[in-house]
Amino acid sequence: MKKSFIILIAILGITACTSKVDLAIDNPSKNPIIVSIDTLTVEIPPKEVVWVEMGKGPRKITLPNDSIVNFDFQQSVYMLNPTFSQYLKYGEVYGVNPLAEFNIRKKDTAEFYGFQFVGDYKVIKNLVNVVNWDYGPRESLPSMVEVEEGDSFTTVYKLMDVNEFVEELQKRSEAPETTKEEN
């Protein structure tokens, strides 16, 4: 009887953990925006992400322009893009990838605000997006990551908004150029 009770508690605990959804609502704009999920109204400050926890299932999303979208949330983590902005998702390799020349994703192309990228890139612009990246908008990539034992590299995925993209372009244009002779 005691074993059955413990198993029942464990099953309820697992079910409770998997029935929630974490929703990141991003606002890359210069002005605050207001979004409603069912009856919950959230103000998202400029260039901020606000996290909302809710149960899985169908929800009514009211956007800043008062349009209403219905969405059935079934995954555990999503990002809501109420401004319909474009984001660039890219893979950053840490370590040494001996097969880098043969990377299948290297053939992917993505156009982001007039720039074309070839490689491990994807443009994200939907209203609701399943989070399949490690670092979101305005989160810095680490300088080092731990590589699993037996592996020589790992890939970390970053989602960059247009503001970060512009900052990165400015940094690169201000950085002194190096030549092969200098290295």
Euclidean distance between termini CA atoms: 71 Å
Shape: globular
Q: Name the helix and strand elements from N-terminus to C-terminus, one letter apiece.
A: HEEEEEEEEEEEEEH
Major beta sheet summary: 4 strands, mixed
Contiguous runs where pLDDT drops below 50 for at least 5 residues: 4-12
Average pLDDT number: 85
Secondary-structure-derived class: alpha+beta
Beta-strand share of residues: 35-45%
Count of distinct strands: 13
Helix content percent band? 10-25%
Gyration radius (Cα, Å) is 21 Å
Number of helices: 2
Strand order of the largest sheet: 4-1-7-12
How is the topology of this model organized?
Blueprint: H1 2-18, E1 20-27, E2 33-37, E3 40-44, E4 48-55, E5 57-62, E6 68-73, E7 77-80, E8 87-95, E9 109-112, E10 115-118, E11 121-124, E12 128-130, E13 153-160, H2 162-174
Parallel strand pairs: 1-7
Antiparallel strand pairs: 1-4, 2-3, 2-5, 5-6, 7-12, 8-11, 8-13, 9-10
Short description:
The protein has helices at 2-18, 162-174; strands at 20-27, 33-37, 40-44, 48-55, 57-62, 68-73, 77-80, 87-95, 109-112, 115-118, 121-124, 128-130, 153-160. With 183 residues, the protein is of the alpha+beta class.
Description of the structure:
With 183 residues, the protein is an alpha+beta fold. The chain is 16% helix and 40% strand. It is built from 2 helices and 13 strands; from the N terminus they run αβββββββββββββα. The longest helix is centred in the first third of the chain and has 17 residues, at 2-18. It is globular. The protein starts with a helix and ends in a 9-residue tail after the last helix.
